[in-house]
Amino acid sequence: MLVLAFDTATPAVTAALHDGERVLAESTTIDARRHGELLVPSVREVLREAGASLRDVTAIVAGSGPGPYTGLRVGLMTAQALSSTSGAPAYGVCTLDVLAYASGLAEPFIVATDARRKEVFWARYADMRTRVAGPFVDRPGDVPGELPLVGAGARMYAEIVGEGRLVEDAPDYPRAGALAALAAEHLAAGVSGAAADAGADGRVLTSPSPIYLRRPDARVPGPPKKVTA
Asked: Which of 69, 73, 179, 197 has the highest CB neighbour count under 10 A?
């Protein structure tokens, strides 16, 4: 097994290679405006560092969001392109699931990432591997109270959600090493047939399709207004 994983659903541009037992190489850069510029060089770097080539990869996994439209599409389109080139199957994993897995928590908690527009994407978990509700998009004040919080979305709005709820040693952004490890765990357990649609049946490994919770910021321009004398 050789899993190539990457995520561009947050300001983190992150890529990693995993052999089914450990992370062989990982690269992460926090830059919300350069997803398209940074991802492919990051993929090349982790392959080079691990002494592998694209033809050695047995599975390609991309974070499927939720996240801002443009950055999210960079990762998923790259996964589909690399899959077509290499012949390795491509999968998607909910980005919130990656943060949950990386937290290592064994008790209920919530993951929240920045959704812009003064909102957060969030989901509720029974433990690091089990999502029980979501993902959703809401204003920070509408995220359910009391449970511990993981992710940059929670930290950004700590004054609203409560600073005491933040899990301090949990990651703010997804890391591809955690994404690859989570995917490898499920691949080792066996994936029967084609991957399900994103978010279907609670499956972790899905098709490499974006999880959209609202319409993109970009809009097709309307007809020009009439000018009257």
From this structure: 179
CA distance 121 to 226: 40
Residue 157 tokens read as: 């709005």
Cα distance between residue 5 and residue 194, in whole Å: 18
What is the per-residue pLDDT across 4-59, written as a single tens digit (0 to 9) for each?
Answer: 999 999 999 999 999 999 999 999 999 988 999 999 999 999 999 999 999 999 99
pTM of the model: 0.88
Q: Roughly how many angstroms between the first and final C-alpha of the chain, as a whole number?
A: 70
